[in-house]
Amino acid sequence: MQVIVPFATESPKTRLEGVLSATERREFARAMLEDVLEAVRATGHAPRVLATGPVEADVPIVIDDRPLSEAVNAQLDAHLGADGTASGVAVVMADLALATPVELAELFAESGDVVFVPGRGGGTNAFAARHPDFYVDYHGTSYLDHRTIAREIGADVSVVDSFRLSTDVDEPTDLVEVLCHGDGRARDFLVDAGFSLETTGGRVTISRSDE
C-alpha cells in the first residue's frame, strides 16, 4: 500500500501561535512529521511526503503547492488509476503525534473499499482507499462528506475507531494529549521547550516555564 503523508511547509500550525513562535511551530510540525513517518515505516510500509514546498526527509518527497484536496486527489489518481489496485493508497496526516505502528497497521489491514479514521470535530485524520473513484474534499466536516462520496460511488466503508489516530494536534489544548500519551520527538520538543502539565480546577492544562 502506498502511504502518503501531507505536510505544509510554510506557516504550519497557526492555531498554536498563542503558545509557540513561528520558528517553534515549524520545528514542532517537523517533529510530528518525523514521528508519523517513523510509525509508518515500522509497519513495513514506505511513506511518501506530499509537501507544499521543499522539505528535508529521508523518504521520497512530492511537492505540490495546490490546496490539500487537489493535491491528495492527484495522488489518488496517480496511484489508484482507472482500474484500482489491490493494495490501495493510504493518506495519514502529519500531525498525528500519538500514532503508533499498531494503530496504523490496523488501518492498513482493515478490509473495505474505503477505510476511515475520523478525527475529532468532524475531520478525516487518515484513510485507506482501494476504490478507483474515491476522491477527497477536506473542507468543512470532511468525515461526513467523505462518507457521502463513498456511498455515491458504491464503495464499501469501514471505520477504525482509534483514540491515538483521532487525536490531531491543532490547538493548544491538544498539547495536553501529547504530553500525556506521546513518547516521540513531538513530546520531547514540548518538554525541552519548557511545557508541562498543570491541573487547575479539576482540569488538566499546559503551562510553560520561563527558563
What's the arrangement of secondary structure elements?
Elements: E1 2-7, H1 22-42, E2 47-51, E3 61-63, H2 68-80, E4 89-92, H3 101-109, E5 114-118, E6 124-129, H4 142-152, E7 157-159, H5 163-166, H6 174-181, H7 185-192, E8 195-200, E9 203-208
Helix pairs in contact: 1-7
Question: Would you summarize the structure shown here?
Answer:
By secondary structure, this protein is of the alpha/beta class. It is 35% helix and 21% strand. It has one domain (2-170): Spore Coat Polysaccharide Biosynthesis Protein SpsA, Chain A.
Description of the structure:
By secondary structure, the chain is α/β, with parallel strands linked by helices. It is 35% helix and 21% strand. The protein has one domain: Spore Coat Polysaccharide Biosynthesis Protein SpsA, Chain A (Alpha-Beta Complex), CATH 3.90.550. It contains 7 helices and 9 strands. The chain has a 7-stranded mixed sheet with strand order 3-2-1-4-6-5-7, sandwiched between helices. Strands 8-9 form a two-stranded antiparallel sheet. Strand 5 and strand 6 form a beta hairpin. Helix 1 packs antiparallel against helix 7.
